[in-house]
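Box 3.1. Reading complex inputs
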Amino acid sequence: MKIYGDSKSGNCLKVKWTADFVGRAYDWIEIDTMRGESRTPAFLGMNPAGQVPTVVLDDGRPLAQSNAIILHLAEGSPLVPDDAYDRARMLEWMFWEQYRHEPYVAVARFQVKYLGKAVSDLEARLVERGAAALQRMEGGLAASAFLVGDRVSLADVALVAYTRFAHEGGFSLDRYPAVQAWIGRVEAALKIA
Amino acid sequence: MKIYGDSKSGNCLKVKWTADFVGRAYDWIEIDTMRGESRTPAFLGMNPAGQVPTVVLDDGRPLAQSNAIILHLAEGSPLVPDDAYDRARMLEWMFWEQYRHEPYVAVARFQVKYLGKAVSDLEARLVERGAAALQRMEGGLAASAFLVGDRVSLADVALVAYTRFAHEGGFSLDRYPAVQAWIGRVEAALKIA
C-alpha cells in the first residue's frame, strides 16, 4: 500500500498511526500541499478532490478521506469496537470531527503555523467554534477514559490528530483538563508520544 | 425508536428514508430548530451538540450525526455493499459529503430559503465551493449509475439529501446533467420522489 501524505497534516497522520497500529505495511510518499503537489494531473488522476491523505491499496485502487481510510484499514482490529452501539458512537464522533472540529481547530492552526497569521487576527467564528468543539470533548471525556468507553478506538485516533496541535492555533488546552489527560492516554495507547 | 428531526432538513430526511427503506419502525418527533427546540435542556440531555437528527434507540440510548445514524440503521441491508472496497468508497463519499458538500450546498439553501437572503448576496465561498462539490459529483457519476457502482447505497442517500434541494440555494442543476439524472434514479430506488 502507498500512503500519499503531508507529515504536517493531522488527517494524514491518522492514516500512518492506524496502519502502524494494525501492522499494515506501506510506503509513505511525502506530498507538500503548500507547493501544489496534490494538484498535479497525476495526483488528480488518483483523487479528483486533490486532497491528502490518499492511499493506493495493494491492488492499485485508490481511496481518500482520512476517516474512510482508517475505517477500511482498521476493520476487524481492536480499534473498531465489536458492539454495534459502540461502533455507532465511534462513527458519531468521527463524523462530528470532520464537521465541527477539524474545520475550526485544524484551520486555525494552519493559518497561524503555516500562513503566519497572528492568533489575534483569526476570524471570530474559528476561535468560537474551535473552543466549542474542545468544550464538547471535555464533556464527553468527563466520565470515560476514551471517547467510546474504556478502550482506544478510531474515534480517539480521529480526534487526537488535531486536538494535540490545538495550542498551535491559539487554543489553550489548560482550559480542558480532561482533554489534556486523554491526549496522553491516546498517545500512549497508539505509541505516538 | 424515536427520530427527533426537522422535516426541512436533508440531514434528518436521510434518517427517515433509511428507516423506511430497511423497514425499521419509528416515531417521528418534529423539532423546529428555528424556534430553538433543539436547544432545550431536555434535548441537550439527549444530544449535547444540540443538533438534529438525534435518534433514541429502542433501549433508550441516543445517537446523533446523520451519517453515523444511517450506517447503524442500514448495517446488513442492501444499502451497505458487501465488498470491503465498495464499502470504503461509500464511506469516502459520506465523509466528503459532510466536509465538502453540506457546508456549502446546504448552507446556501438555508440562507436563501429560510433566512430570506438573495442568491446574489451569498458569500462567494459558499457559491464557489458548492459549485465545485456539484462538479465533483458530476465527474463521479459520468461512468456509473450510482455513486458506488450500479446499486443504490448510503452514499447516494447522504448526497441526494441536499443535492435535490440545491436549486433552492441558487445552484442550477441544468449544468450537471449526470447529477440530475442520478437524482431521479435515487428517488426512484428509495421511493421518495
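In summary: Chain A has a mean pLDDT of 96.
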